[in-house]
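User: My advisor asked me to double-check a structure prediction for WD repeat domain 36 before group meeting. I don't want to rely on an old file, so could you generate it fresh from this sequence?
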Amino acid sequence: LNQVNLTRGHVLFAGFRALGMYSGSLPHVLRFHQRHREFYLVVAVGSSFHTYNVSGNPDCNALLQDITCLAADRMLVFASYGSLLHAFARNKEVVHIYEGHKADIHLLQPFGDHVISVDVDNVLIVWDVQSEEEYLQMNFDKAVFAVSAIMHPSTYLNKILLGSEQGSLQLWNIKSNKLLHSFPGWGSGVTTLEQAPAVDVVAIGLVSGYIIVHNIKFDETLMKFEQDWGPVTTISFRTDGHPVMAAGSAIGHIALWDLEEKKLISQMRNAHTTAIAGLSFVHGEPLLITNGADNAIRIWIFDGPGGGGRLLRYRMGHSAPPTKIRYHGQNGQQILSAGQDGTLQSFSTVHERFNKSLGHGSINKKKSKKKGLRYDTLALPPIMAFASVDISTCGNFAVIGLSTGHVDVYNMQSGIHRGRYGKEKAHEGAIRGVAVDGLNQLAITAGSDGLIKFWKFKTTELVHSTNLASSLSGILLHRDSGILGIASDDFSISVLDVETRKIVRKFSGHLGKINDMAFSPDGRWLISASMDCTIKTWDLPSGCLIDSFLLDSAAVSITMSPTGDFLASSHVDDLGIYLWSNRSLYSLVSLRPLPTDHESSVIMLPRTCPAQGICWMKMAFLFQFLRLFYCEHYNCLSQCFNTDTSPLNLLKVMGPSNIETELRGLAPEGGGSVEVMQSFLRLIGMMLNTKCDFELAQAYLALFLKLHLKITSSEPALLEEISKLSAQLEETWVHLQTLFNQSLCVLNYMKSALL
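Assistant: Sure, here is a fresh prediction for WD repeat domain 36 from the sequence you gave:
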């Protein structure tokens, strides 16, 4: 959802959901549901809006573009993008669309059976909610009265109060379309208007930082407050018996004013790291809800002395785009994310209640706790990458590569330096990646000098060095399989076998810098993300590109869950983490090799084979059967077929991926036929008759039945072949069991006999 299009995944991955998106720069809307007797919070996030029960779970709804304005009444939620206004019912479906503005809408005001919208061209339109018709249109001169705020004064029938950038206010009767009164203002632009608990009294926030509490009936200023934090962004009043007014600022501070004593009673500094976008007291309760562009929603409770509030609950994501994400744990339910805001956060893929913020790193934690120090003065700079850091399999050591070419080993608990690779430097250039194998025997380093070096982990002795043609940008090790993925500055990816120290695969096809890579849990797929806005999936056994899709913005980091069910990605200038479900786990996905220059903008994958050479090589096995079965003298050749081992020899030299591709192609929907499937079952029978490759025959048959069980059970000819095979298998197993028993008998005799 939001900025990244989650529906354009091709065959292998499908958009699932976004994590870590909670708030944008628009103020929230608080509404009360009379039947449910609960308060609901509506927050705009990009092109979506989330509806929260104040103590419950969110619902999410999306529009085609980013929401520019948000409002709600007791029944509907109104959201606009561009010049269109939408009305949502039950937080699920669009029930009304209002078209008539020629410019972007920036103000909304529900008004009984009507809704009022104001666009940036200073055109105000009153809509009939049910009929979607214009009730009234008013045009204002932007040079004289540019509308910047709107509200409906309580108990004022058919009347609205408008504030302007010039500072003046106007009270209008929209039923008669008459200007009732003009307020000259206070020499500064109006930013917000808020109804006070008392009738006729309105709080007016100004660009100058002044807050005016004004009686609009008698045009009399009751009190005036000033805050030196810049423009007043939002205002709210407590309604639980305490005469307190809260005002938000552009730098994230909140001021609490006592209306009886007309003084400041408390400050809530750094409530948000950005401007306070919305601020609302819950009616009749000591709860204050705030949101800001720092991607955070916070609920504060006022239950202590001094009039200040404390944080009760919150939903918070990164306030700046994530730079690196990685799955943590073996259940695939937690994602660690480092952001440009300097924080490290843990996001749950199960429920938001399990999210955790691990906070900022501190240079000197003891000193940072002393009084008088500014907030985050000693905080470490943003985490940019985990690329040149790795932790040993045992978890006791950290290997750190530096831009100077040094690679050092430290103890995780004590921080003591335990060793350095190389006499002076491990590489002549900057370290682009480090990795430790699964047995803590080897440390692997990659440098910008184009060298991959293998070191003994304990003795720091150089074992082997591999020189690649171009400079390296990063490495990724799959410890279980001993496969090392290497990204190069020439936009290619190499795959190195750690055991043999040789390059076993090389992929090219990206048109931009490779930002990140991820292995599937079984090590069969290597997934890469590039600045060309594509995510490509490479099949390592076959050495082919099997999936590629295009995004609206480049992915800066990707990670695959340990269970293989989700791929997570983070993107340029985007605060969210996006999950893509692996469709091969719950549906039939036919994977075909794609050319390296595959156009990822195409939604559907091409159905024909992309490369003619690859096509004929893959289909050679199938055509041998076709030639056999469509021969006029099939009966004469059947005896020859029973002894022909050329198809079996061809299968034996193929890899697992190619074998699966061939068996999928035997079915009619894959280009084969029932006769071809029969011939394959006879091949299995021939293998059993010759009493050779028993385990291989079992593996081929198991894969065949897994892929084609449905069509096999519906075709009488195939059922007949399966029945014959079943009898052959039972007979062969009895023969093998006899041989096993004979061998065991001889072994027992050898052990017990006195020779």
